[in-house]
Amino acid sequence: MTIHLFFITITIERRKPRKRSIEEERFARAAEEELLDRKCSVHQRVF
């Protein structure tokens, strides 16, 4: 009787956040907050 073993090792490396991606994320958050502020101000005027 023979046993055949086959192993696969997967290594996942986390990339360090680049300066550009951090700036893009900040810009996206600022845009979302601005949009939310506009929605809230319009909603308050209606009621």
TrEMBL record:
Concerning InterPro entries, the annotation shows: YrzI
Q: What is this protein called?
A: YrzI family small protein
